[in-house]
């Protein structure tokens, strides 16, 4: 920028930045179709996992991913990940008996803190 003169230039209205030396990342285009039949394109990074459904930016309707042949892509049941709940993850780490024992210990602590612990219970 030292070789450029700023004299007489309107600062803020013109940029001195250029795209020289900029490398754009690889991209892929996915086509989606809504129930009404309209199609729209979404651009993703080449290494991104393309979702099966996407909301249309114009109508807000949900579109289904179209394949190269123009037909909707069918999702195999084994490809769908079942979301795990907190309870499922907890049961992976502890048994039900351990969880019941921990619950009783914590309830005892809370009851003694409140002064409601029953003697001999």
Can you give a write-up of this model?
This protein has 121 residues and is of the alpha+beta class. Helix content is 22%, strand content 18%. It has 2 helices and 4 strands, in the order E-E-E-E-H-H. It has helices spanning 86-93, 96-114; strands at 27-33, 39-45, 53-55, 62-66. A 4-stranded antiparallel β-sheet has the order 2-1-4-3, with no helix packed on it. It is extended and about 85 Å long. It starts with 26 loop residues before the first strand and ends in a 7-residue tail after the last helix.
Number of helices: 2
Instruction: State the end-to-end CA separation.
Output: 81 Å
Mean pLDDT: 84
What oligomeric state is this?
single chain
Strand content: 15-25%
**Order of helices and strands, N to C?**
EEEEHH
Query: Which word captures the global form?
Result: extended
**Broad structural category:** alpha+beta
**Helical residue percent?**
10-25%
Strand order of the largest sheet: 2-1-4-3
Tell me the Rg in angstroms: 30 Å
What would a concise description of this structure say?
With 121 residues, the chain is α+β, with helices and mostly antiparallel strands. The protein has helices at 86-93, 96-114; strands spanning 27-33, 39-45, 53-55, 62-66. It is built from two helices and four strands, in the order ββββαα.
